[in-house]
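In the laboratory, one determines a bound structure by crystallizing the protein with its ligand and collecting diffraction data. In a computational setting the workflow is compressed into a single prediction: the sequence and the ligand go in, and a structural description comes out. We illustrate the idea with protoporphyrin IX containing FE.
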Amino acid sequence: MDPWGLTTAALLACVLFLIFFSLRRQEFKRWKLPPGPTPLPFIGNILQLDFKNLPASFSQLAEKYGPIYTLYFGTQRVVVLHGYNIMKEALIDQGDAFKDRGIIPMVEDVFKGQGVVFSHGERWKQLRRFSLMTLRNFGMGKRSIEERVQEEAQCLVEEFRKTKGQATDPTFILGCAPCNVICSILFRDRFNYNDEKFLYLMKLLKENFELFNSPWVQIYSLLPAFRVYLPGKHKRFFRNVEDIKHFILEKVKEHQKILDAINPQDYIDCYLSKMQQEKDNPQSEFDLENLLATGANLFVAGTETTSSTLRYGLLLILKHPEVQAKIHEEIDRVIGRNRVPSIKDRQDMPYTDAVVHEVQRFIDLLPLNLPHAVNQDIQFQQYFLPKGTTIFPLLSPVLNDSKEFPNPDQFDPQHFLDMNGKFKKSDYFMPFSTGKRSCLGEGLAMMELFLFFTTILQNFTLKSVGDPKEISIRTNRIRFSLPPYYQLCFLPH
Ligand code: HEM
Ligand SMILES: *[C@@H]1O[C@H](CO)[C@@H](O)[C@H](O)[C@H]1NC(C)=O
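The predicted complex, in C-alpha cell form:
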C-alpha cells in the first residue's frame, strides 16, 4: 500500500474509534448503565476474559467494579450480578422484571422461542405452570414420581453389581439413570440400559452436551457473527435437537392412539388431555410444537445435570472415607438392609442430607447460571437497565461465599449441619438458581440425588483404585463444572 493509502486507512480507523467511543459514552450517560471495562469495537470485552475459566475472570472484574457491572460479548450487552445480596434484590425482590430468559444465539436458532426453557411471556407462564403441576409427586396418575425414581435406583444398583467389584468408570451407568427417569415421566415406562433406542437417545444428548460445553461453541454462541465459521458443529447441534424431537414425536403418536384422558399415566398423556381441554381457547399455548420442544428441554436439562452431580458426588465420597463411614452408619441405623430408601427418610438422615447439599454447593455445577433478561426498562439501584438487557446472575459467588460457608473451597458437610448435628438450611444454597425462573426440576433432582446416593451406599462400599488422598477433583470450568474421569470399585456393603 502507498504511504497515502496507509495514512488514509489510519485516519479512517481513528475516526471510527472516536465515533465508537463517543457513542458508547452517550449510551452510558443516557442509560446510567452499571460500570465496567471499556469494550473494543465488534469484539467487546472478550479479550479480557479467560474462556477456560470464566468464573475466575468474573470474580476479578467484581473486585474492580463491584457486585454489578456491564460487559460486552461482541456487541451483546450483559449485566453481571455477583454475590448474594444483588442476586436477591434482582431475582426475588424485583423478580417480575428479571424473569425473562436471556438469548443464547445457538439455542435460539434451534428452538425459536418454543418450549419452557427458552420461551417468554404468556407461553412460558402456561408451560411452566403446567409442567410444575405435572411434575409434583402425584401429578400423573397412579404411579408417583418417587416410585419411578425408586425403580430406577434398584436397576442402577443391579447394573453396578454386575461389575463384580472390578475397577469401573461409572460415567455411562450414572448417565443412564437420570435419563431413564425422564423417560419414565414422559413416556410412562423406562428402558433397559441396552435398549437400542435408549442408547441412541443417550448418544444425541451426550453429543449436544459436549458441543454446548466446548469453549469454541461458547465463543460462537457469544459472537453470533462467527456462526459461519463453525458450520459443521452448528449443523450437528441442530440435527441432534431435531432428532430428539422426532424421537419424542414417535412416542406422542403412540400415546395419541390409546389416550385415556381421564386416567393420564405420564407427562405426554397429561399434555394431550390439556390440548383437548383447551382446543377452543385461542390463547392456548398447548400445541404439538411446544410439547416436543418442552420434552427435549426436560431431557437436556434433567440428564447431564443430575448425572454429573452423581458422578462428582461419588468422587468426593471416595476422596473422603470418613464421610462415607458416617453415611453408612446413618443408613444402617435409619433404613437398614431390608427395605428400599424413600424420600421421607431424609428428615431422619441429616448427615446424608448435608452431604448431598454440600456436593451441590462444592461442585458449583453451573457457575454462570443460565442467562436471564429484563423484560422492561427498569430502575435498579442507582442504575437504569433498558428492556432486553442480558443478565448473568452468577451462582458461583453465592455458593462460594466465605461469610456464609467458612473455608468455602473445602468439601465439608458441616457447612449444612448445626452444633447438634441437625440439618442447617442456608439461603445461599442456590445451585438451582432462585426466583421465578429457577430450575423447574429442583424437586425431582433433589429426590433423585437423595435416593440414588442412599440406594448406592445401602448396597455398596466404594473403594478407590489408588490412595484416596491422591484423587484430584478439579478440572476446567467452562459452562459446566465437570469432574475428571476416574474409576472405582463397588464392593458389597
Ligand atoms: C442437579 C441437577 C440440576 C441442577 C443443578 C439444575 C440447575 C438449573 C439451573 C441453574 C437452571 C437455570 C435457572 C435460572 O435460569 O435461573 C435450571 C433451569 C431448568 N431446569 Fe434444572 N437443574 C437440575 C436438574 C433438572 C431436572 C432433573 C430437570 C427436569 C425436570 C430440570 C429442568 C429444568 C428446566 C425445565 C429449567 C428451565 C426453567 C425455566 O426456564 O423456567 N432441571 N436448572
Ligand atoms: C472461593 O472463595 C475462596 C475464599 O474466599 C477463594 O480463595 C477461591 O478462589 C474461591 N473459589 C472459586 C472457585 O471462586
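The chain has 16 helices and nine strands. Keep in mind that any predicted model is a hypothesis to be tested, not a measurement.
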